[in-house]
Every structure is written in C-alpha cells, then in structure tokens.
Amino acid sequence: MTDPQPGPLDDQTEAEATCSARGCQAPATWQLLWNNPKLHTPDRRKVWLSCDDHRQQLIDFLGKRAFLKDVVPHV
Ligand SMILES: [Zn+2]
To answer: What is the pTM of this model?
Structure first.
C-alpha cells in the first residue's frame, strides 16, 4: 500500500487545469481548497485540482491532516 503522492504544494494556474495527483495528466474536474495553519493565515486558500479518479484520494490526504476546507467543481 502506498500513500497518495500529490504534486508540489504550489498553487496551480488555471491554464494547467490538470489533476494534481502525481503522474496524472487528466483534466481537472474538481478544486480542493485547503489551508495549512502552520504555514498559512486562516483566510488563505491553496488549491489542488483533481480529476474524478483522484478526488477521493486527495480529499483523504488533506482530510487526514485537517487541511481540507472545501471541494468545489472545477469549470
Ligand atoms: Zn487524476
């Protein structure tokens, strides 16, 4: 069993619009909004983009760390 390995913890540009999961080039269909309270002010939102296949994996990854704030469709 391997842990999910999302990409770098950087904001993604809208132009990329591909899934944040490592090695996945699928078009993003979801945005995961998250915040690391050790690094970010409370109102800061980092964004990971996700395809349908990796959405739950990334939600679990962020949820375990209590970083996840919101999940919204990426249009
Ligand atoms: Zn993906």
So the answer is: 0.76
